[in-house]
Amino acid sequence: MSVQWTKHDDSTYYLSLGKSLLVTTVYDRLTPPGWKVQVGQRALKDKFGSLEDAQKIALAFAEKVVAAIRADLDSLKSQPSGDPPAGA
User: pTM for this structure?
Assistant: First the structure.
């Protein structure tokens, strides 16, 4: 099964990675107009001129976010499991 971009409306395309991480490209008409990229709750401040460029950058950004998630998970695995997390 391949992951494909889904058209939500004329200005929004998205895909779901692992059925849990949403990657979106949204066309913003405000000055300057362009495509914005968001991965989960993280967004890039830059806007991109074409949808194709925005989608390529969105995938590269998603790889960076997934790498950060992997590092956090590996860090959690190395912690002792007997102690509750701080603030719990």
Answer: 0.81
